Amino acid sequence: MTTDRVADLARIQDALVQAGQVLRGLWERNLRISYKQGDDPVTEADHAADALLKRILPRGDDGWLSEETADDPRARLGRRRVWIVDPLDGTREYVEKIPEWCVSIGLVEDGVPVAGGIHNPVTKQLVVGAVGHGVTLNGSPVVARPRSSLTGAQVLASNSEVARGEWDEFADEPFEVLAVGSVAYKLGLVAAGLTDATWTFTPKHEWDVAGGAALVLAAGGMVYNLDGSPARFNLPKPKLPGFVAFSGASRALFEPWFASRWRR
Helix crossing, 44-56 with 3-27: angle to 10°? Predict the structure, then answer.
């Protein structure tokens, strides 16, 4: 691992810890809440964490893309390195006091996620990693749980998608479906070896996915677009049509299963 990547990971961890402290401190307060288009909540906690991350992460010519910062495509598309962050992924869960939210940080180089991390300070889960370096959970190297069959495997689904019945078609499959909030948190759990896979057919912003995608790749897993190609980031319109993510241990099982049943 290069000296530069060591510095990237140190900055990622520092930013996650500090942002987690800010968010955890505000979590039990009566927050000021406003709503974006589509009835998505945003709080003072989102903005406080965003400002902190922007102070810590970018260096030199690094680009920046965050849910809580107005996007300037001209300023990031020409950059080789871009930080793609969600200061608080799972704001709805945060507001409702459901501990399924996190800070998410992704570092993308030439469109490919290479390093990242997520931090859920309530569940005390700090996941950090880089491609070629591996992944740690609370400072300890991750060991993916072995998986020899889809029977007993666990797939994390969106709370809202499950509520809308979008996962009913998987009711008779051999794996278990568990509904969880934040997209980035779900990906972090896959990367940490705590679950086996997650996917969605609903479009997601890059900041929802980049940090967790970097972790899954660092742990030996894979993140695909819905057309089966590897997910790429820092696009002019930073939104994925959906994605699928498998852990390194479950990838060999889920890839053929998905190929035979995928409804495009």
Answer: 160
Q: Hey, what CATH topology would domain 3-141 get?
A: Fructose-1,6-Bisphosphatase; Chain A, domain 1 (3.30.540)
Joined together, the tokens standing for residue 82 give 């871009």
Q: How far is Cα 157 from Cα 242, in angstroms, rounded to an integer?
A: 12
91 within 8 A of 43, measured Cβ to Cβ: yes
Read off the pLDDT of residues 215-232 as tens digits, 9 standing for 90 and up. 999 999 999 998 889 999
H or E element in which residue 106 lies: strand 102-109
CATH code matching the domain that covers 154-261, chosen among 3.40.50.970, 3.30.1330.30, 3.40.50.1820, 3.40.190.80: 3.40.190.80
pTM for the model stands at 0.93
Q: What is the pLDDT of residues 53-110, one digit of tens each?
A: 999 999 999 999 999 899 999 999 999 999 999 999 998 898 889 999 999 999 999 9
Q: Which of 81, 24, 83, 76 is nearest to 49 (CA)?
A: 24
